[in-house]
Request: fold
Amino acid sequence: MVNEEKSEKKEFRSGFVAIVGRPNAGKSTLVNRLVGQKIAIVTSKPQTTRNRIQGIVTKPQGQIVFIDTPGLHEADSALGRQMMQEVAAALEGIDVLLLMADASSMHPHADDLLLEKAKRFRGKTILALNKVDRLPKPKLLPLIESFAKVFEFSAIVPISALQGMGCNELLDEILRHLPEGAPYFSEDQVTDQPERFLAAEIIREKAIQLMYHEVPYALAVVVEKYEEKPRLLRIEALMNVERDSQKKILIGHKGEMLKKIGTEARKELEAILGSKIYLGLFVKVAPDWRENPQKVRELDWRYQLEGLTEELDEKE
Reply:
């Protein structure tokens, strides 16, 4: 009996899996689907994800720590370069590389940037062919075969992150390729991202969904106040844009756009966090912040977390 228990414990697998793909490949949608709740924002606009986010999936047979990354693209700004550094950092120390490709619009020979990541990575690489629900069935097998010819993947799994098709099979395939080991996080933890920074992302998501032209790409949100009280969570957030014209668009006529963004963000945050929320939004012009490496760093939630930790240490 004792030997059986030891054997069962030994079979538990755990490890880190970086999800890498082009913008709008469905990486964040997949993370939310696998985790079982929303931890990463999703919009139809490319380059929505700017920072690494960990999503944790714990099953009886193992624990997978997914690392959602910004979409692969040719960087032309300080923000873009920072995003590509996020991708590079995500590949350090991982056990499995999960490449995601849009099966409905991609050919294996058409994306050297994606295949380059696979060829440089020395570990196990799994390809998730996403959006197969949009692909005529007769085309699926030839597409899988064409990908298998350009790189020796550990596995190729067709999925639909939006519909949930193939996602359980993908989890099983990933677990098979992870090393045996103890879990890295507690069973009930689903992300490493603090709630105050999830709040900032939800606000940015609602703004992106409601705004047009250049405003979504020039927007960065920082939660400046996050106060938990017995019956109310008070959140105050600063929305940074680069131009006065963008500020006017974001606020809208008589503040209507800002109010709409706030209302939609508040409703979703109340549903996610299970608390009544007061949400105050403010807009500030930070000229050309995307071209300023220091400003880009300051707007990263991990940098902000360091500042909050230092403040708490000083108070103690």
About this structure: The two ends are 50 Å apart (CA to CA). The chain has eleven helices and nine strands. The longest strand covers residues 13-21.
